[in-house]
Amino acid sequence: MANYYVVNDPNGGWNVKPAHAQRVSFHSENQSVAESEAKRLSGSSGGGEVKIQGRDGKFRDSDTVAPGNDPNPPKDRRF
């Protein structure tokens, strides 16, 4: 599974990083652009989880990208 994180860049903007990686795969000034790129990267690598960090540093959301296996599918139909 290709898991990616959308994290706040201390110098401004948002970074997309693969799980357990030091280097950034993508940088954007806009969080939604970074989130879309993380989902695209995960999907092209076989699917996985994309976790999104909020401005406060806490992870606020996560999405499973197909064909990943979501162990806890959402009960709400928000996505």
Protein architecture, described:
With 79 residues, this protein is an alpha+beta fold. Helices cover 18% and strands 33% of the residues. It has 1 helix and 5 strands. The radius of gyration is 12 Å and the shape is globular.
Shape: globular
Helix/strand structural class = alpha+beta
Q: Indicate the low-confidence ranges by residue numbers.
A: none
H-E string? EEEHEE
Instruction: Tell me the radius of gyration.
Output: 12 Å
At a glance:
The protein is of the alpha+beta class. It has one helix at 31-44; strands at residues 4-8, 14-18, 26-28, 48-53, 59-65.
What labels describe this entry?
five-stranded mixed beta sheet, 33% strand, globular, 79 residues
Topology readout:
Blueprint: E1 4-8, E2 14-18, E3 26-28, H1 31-44, E4 48-53, E5 59-65
Parallel strand pairs: 1-4
Antiparallel strand pairs: 1-2, 2-3, 4-5
